[in-house]
């Protein structure tokens, strides 16, 4: 099974704290926010993880987590496209 971490937002609600980077990398207590999501995946024995990130933040995630081997995980990255996941409904789907 593969886990997905959606970290592609711009963090506009937390501005100006997110001016220099992703909200998921902001420290909460002693570690970045995204570590709590990773810990939940690890407890569920999910080791393959895909991060969906903004193209401009991808370098920060890769620098921080690398391939995930230091956490005992296999981490991959994919850049979020402009449309976002909420616009991915199939054609002909009923609007909300």
Structural key phrases:
5 strands; 3-stranded parallel sheet; 96 residues; 2 helices; alpha/beta; single chain; two-stranded antiparallel sheet
Fold topology:
Layout: E1 2-7, E2 27-28, E3 31-32, H1 34-43, E4 48-53, H2 58-65, E5 74-79
Parallel strand pairs: 1-4, 4-5
Antiparallel strand pairs: 2-3
What percent of residues are in strands? 15-25%
Question: Which residues sit in consecutive blocks of at least 5 with pLDDT less than 50?
Answer: none
Order of helices and strands: EEEHEHE
CA distance, first residue to last residue: 30 Å
By DSSP (H or I, 4+ residues per run), the number of helices equals: 2
Number of strands: 5
Q: Radius of gyration from the CA trace?
A: 15 Å
User: Structural class of the helices, strands and pairings?
Assistant: alpha/beta
**Strand order of the main beta sheet, please?**
1-4-5
* Fraction of helical residues: 10-25%
How is the biggest beta sheet arranged?
3 strands, parallel
Shape summary: globular
- Average predicted confidence as pLDDT: 77
How would you describe the overall organization of this protein?
- The chain has 96 residues and is α/β, with parallel strands linked by helices.
- The protein is 19% helix and 23% strand.
- The longest helix is centred in the middle third of the chain and has 10 residues.
- The chain is globular and about 30 Å long.
- The N and C termini lie far apart (30 Å).
- The model has no long low-confidence stretch (mean pLDDT 77).
């Amino acid at each position: 099974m593969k886990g997905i971490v959606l970290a592609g937002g711009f963090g506009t609600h937390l501005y100006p704290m997110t001016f220099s980077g992703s909200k998921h990398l902001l420290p909460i207590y002693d570690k970045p926010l995204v570590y709590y999501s990773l810990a939940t995946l690890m407890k569920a024995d999910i080791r393959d993880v895909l991060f969906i990130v903004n193209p401009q933040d991808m370098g920060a995630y890769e620098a921080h987590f690398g391939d995930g081997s230091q956490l005992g995980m296999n981490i991959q990255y994919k850049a979020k496209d402009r449309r976002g996941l909420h616009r991915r409904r199939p054609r002909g789907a009923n609007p909300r």
